[in-house]
Design a protein that fits this description.
By secondary structure, the protein is mostly helical. It has one domain. The protein is built from seven helices and no strands. The longest helix is centred in the middle third of the chain and has 14 residues.
């Protein structure tokens, strides 16, 4: 666990490891207008660090289905997109 990580994504990751299931609140990304990562973004970043490819794929799928015309610019220039090529590619494709 990195100091900048919050607890909730780690709880989601443990849930995924034990159940192979994960759920996100679909409102978190749609209403995001802040520099902070939402739950799915944090989970994606942590799954990337932990080499959990299945969880990364599920998180990326959720994120790609959550993009709207209201949040795509924030997402495209957000920290997750700038650090992860796959996320950036999905953002650019949507844009």
């Amino acid at each position: 666990m990195m100091p900048e990580d919050s607890f909730d994504p780690h709880q989601k990751i443990l849930q995924f490891i034990y159940t192979s299931k994960i759920s996100y609140d679909s409102k978190t990304i749609a209403s995001q207008h802040s520099p902070y990562l939402c739950e799915a973004e944090e989970t994606y970043a942590i799954a990337d660090r932990l080499l959990l490819s299945g969880l990364k794929a599920l998180s990326l799928d959720f994120l790609s289905r959550s993009f709207t015309t209201e949040n795509i610019v924030t997402q495209l220039f957000g920290p997750l997109s700038l650090e992860h090529d796959k996320v950036r590619a999905i953002n650019i494709y949507f844009f």
